[in-house]
Design a protein that fits this description.
Largest sheet: 4 strands, antiparallel
Oligomer: single chain
Mean pLDDT: 81
Strand order of the largest sheet: 2-1-4-3
Low-confidence stretches: 116-131
């Protein structure tokens, strides 16, 4: 069908696997759940809450309609990381919002050992430190 949305693929380069969703709301929710577990500084946290937190679907849809994709960067573990929201389906579709699958890498293991990357308390305050 011509009017069927293409779906959305989201991910954090070198931190999560790219994950696809049929609609934007669960894609953003999953991305937000994952970002909340990372040791973001206050400014980064607030910026990403604007794009991916509560009420962000309309803002992000407008951004995607205008620019075709959303790519944001942040510093983590001494390197710049790229967050992507693309209007496409790349791989299997996840049907419900859930934290994105973390990649198996030494850097992600370090995040987990430092007590991030898997907090069960996603409604509590985020980590407020930059790494």
């Amino acid at each position: 069908m011509k009017d069927t949305p293409p779906g959305y693929t989201v991910g954090i380069a070198e931190i999560t696997e790219p994950t696809s969703f049929l609609t934007l709301a669960p894609a953003l929710s999953s991305l937000w759940q994952t970002l909340r577990t990372l040791p973001l500084g206050w400014t980064q946290f607030e910026a990403y809450r604007y794009f991916f937190g509560p009420g962000a679907t309309g803002r992000t849809e407008e951004f995607l309609a205008r620019d075709g994709r959303l790519r944001l960067s942040f510093a983590l573990l001494g390197r710049t990381r790229l967050i992507s929201v693309l209007p496409t389906v790349d791989g299997p579709i996840q049907l419900v919002p859930a934290p994105l699958r973390l990649v198996d890498s030494p850097e992600v293991t370090l995040l987990r050992l430092n007590g991030t990357g898997g907090r069960p308390d996603l409604d509590g305050p985020p980590h407020r430190r930059s790494a």
